[in-house]
Every structure is written in structure tokens, then in C-alpha cells.
Amino acid sequence: MEWLRLRFDCGAEQVDALTDLLARLGAGSVSVTDGGSEPLLAGSTEAAGYWSVSRVTALLPTDADLDVALACLRNLAGVDGLQNARIEPLADRDWVAAGREAHGPLLFGDRLCICPSWAQAPEGKQVLTLDPGLAFGTGTHATTALCLEWLAAAELRDRTVIDYGCGSGVLALAAAKLGAARVHAVDVDPVAVTVTRENARRNTLDALVAASDTDAAVEAADVLVANILLGPLLDLAPRFAALVRAGGEIVLSGILATQAEACLGRYGRWFTMAPARYRDEWALLIGRRRAGEDV
Fold it and tell me: What is the number of other CB atoms lying within 10 angstroms of the CB of residue 43?
């Protein structure tokens, strides 16, 4: 099958909206790469996981109405928001291999690197090999990046950690790489459990990371990280309070900035909550479990 390749440059804050629009316009694939020459450091731009000048590449079918597509993109991006737009025909090729070119190492703090298996990782970091796949979470989304930055800055040595709603297992594996003595990854999705176990095996962390679709056998830990949605976070608050020992920490994300107050109020019954941290429209909440507050 032949394709049309559309490329353009835009600001980091515009990437999500423009790539979502391309998907709605029927793009077969969309990738984002560096449009300049800056390293991708988590937290280095306003939009986590993107460059200040980001190059978007989309594959569109040859029968796509390019005039309509470009008009929609320019209307969304603004007069100066879409730069260096160009279109060229492409013959069929191995697009799985081509898509790999869009994914490189991600750095979190001075300690942690999330790197796909086909890329060269920088030296002197704790490297976690993780390929994009079926389960959510490789570090590019703001909520995942916020959690990874917290883990990279925390002292995890000899501590037990729970990753609740583990997805690909990226947070559980990062905690293990950063020194946690034991990590429990929990997800109701059996695909996520399977992917987490496989990623742990690939990173030789399977002795430290246990993945399960239930928390029935999980004991109270020093740290619980949950990157899920507001509804489950509110519903699971009593259970999370029971799963964090006194003096332990809870780290919550997956919620919008506008939802932070509701979540802070809910968890304030058992945890001393710090002010929320924000990135784009997303929030990260951190709390310390108080002693003597029964569930």
C-alpha cells in the first residue's frame, strides 16, 4: 500500500492536540521526533515528553483530502503554529521498523533512563529497557513522567513498593532499578500483568518484581504509586490507606489538575498531603501515611 507522508514542526504544547487530530483524520501512524537539536529530558519542556520544536510525521492514505487536513491542522495550531509543512508520496515499507526511529532514550533526573531495545542508552544511568507495546506506559505521557521523576528523586533502597494499576510495569520496574527491595505490581488487566512480567524478565528484575491481578496477598508497603484515573483513585482510597504502613508515602497521578482538590480531600483522611505538582493539565499528589488513622 502506498502512503502520503506529512511532516511539520510545532511547539511542544501543541503536539497532543495535533496528533489526536491526525488520528481522527485517518492517519495510519503518527510519530514525534526532535525538530531541533535538544536532548529529551523529562521536565525540560512545558509538555512532558516533547521537544520545544517537535517534528510530527504522519502517514496518510493516498486518497486523503490533504487540503482539508492541512486546513484543520492550521486552524488548530494557529497562523504560526505549523511550520515547515511538507508532503511526499511513499512506497510501502516496513513501518514497524520505521516507527522505531521515533522512540529514543528518556532521562528522568540524573539517575534513570527508559530506553527502547533498539536504541543506545547513555552511560552512567540506571537503564530500564522498555519497548512501546500493548500496555500503557513508557514514560512519555505527563502522568507517567511525573511519577518517574518522583521515583528518580526518592530514596528507595531497602524499601517495599506497590505499583497499583501497573500497565506496562514501568513504575514497578523503575522502582526496582532504583534500589527497592521488593515491588508488587497490581493490575486487573491480565494483559498488563503478562506484559509487566515479561518486561521484568527482560530487565532481569523478575526476582524483585511480582505482578498479579489482585492485591489479596500484598502486604503494607513503604511506598504506593498509582497512575490511574480519578474514579478508581477515589474508590480505592481506603484500600490504599491499608496498603501503606505508617510513615510510608503515597504517590498518585492520572488525574487532571481540576480534579486534584477532590483527590486531596479524599486522601487527607489518612495521609498528610503535600501541595499538588502540575504538568500541563495533569497533577501529581504525594502524601505521608499518618499513624493511628484506622481505615
Answer: 16
